[in-house]
Amino acid sequence: MTDGIYKTEVFQPAREYLLRFHDERELVIRLCRDINSHSKKLIFTLHRVQGNITQELYGQLFSNAKIISEKLSILYNKFLYNENFIQLKSTISNSIEEMIEAFTFAYYIMNGDILPYDRFLYVVRCLILSYNYKLNLFNTKLLNHALCELLFDSVENTITEELEAPYDSVEFEVDFILPGDYLMGLFDLTGEIMRYSITHIVDERLKTVNPKSLENLKFMKYLNKYLRELFAKFPNVNINRGIFSVEYNYKSGSIMDKKLHTLEQSINKVQTMICDMTIKGNEAIEYDDYNIHNY
Questions:
Q1: Which of 103, 115, 129, 159 gives the lowest tally of CB atoms within 10 Å of its CB?
Q2: Domain spanning 1-155+171-177: which CATH class is it, in words?
Q3: Per-residue pLDDT tens over the stretch 188-219
Q4: Strand 208-209 vs strand 202-203: parallel, antiparallel, or unpaired?
Q5: Which Gene3D superfamilies match (predicted)?
């Protein structure tokens, strides 16, 4: 009799809970895998942008942003207030960092600056609202609005007229994205800037070192200086699942050290490539306009 009570009141509910948690975790993993995959595709497309963005490239960015918006909306509506959310956060953080890397890279390529955190959250909210989770419908005009907010500093510079701002307030919390996630994404951004600088090191029209590569190098050095000052002031700061902490953690601390080391390596690679081009005589920049020693 006692065994039967244990089975029905203890083991059976526990079994059902574990099965439900496993199914939820599998779905979150698939959603995050899609966010990660299409964020990488955004980055690949952005590496082809030189100067003004073309309709073809914008169309590719839109297609990937559309899928990301769907997955973000499902995460927000189905899992944000789930009882197991905290246990799923580490899985979500990995894909969110990749998405942040893609979004900040897009803004940097088009505007030459860091995507402000508030603007990033606004874009994410618009993406979530652009997909109706219950009806399985997209608002393409709102999706265009979100993408143009990401790419262009002002509406006058947008590439499409098929856009509209959200009717309702977008001041809702997106608790699965935290400031720590954003900072980790910024570290990864520098790697993409390094690759972009090396890929486009030569100005094909003038057959000289691309001035944009020098600007990228200057930006990376500025970011490295700023981050090192930050971590010098807070030496024990670490990030776990997007949450800042000042309690020393060997694993988290080593990750931050590795990120800073990777950033310095990216700077050295761009710097070395520019110097090599100069030494080989393939570079003919007017030194009155661009003084390499200032970079």
A1: 159
A2: mainly alpha
A3: 898 999 999 888 887 666 667 778 888 998 99
A4: antiparallel
A5: Translin, domain 1 (1.20.58.190), Translin, domain 2 (1.20.58.200)
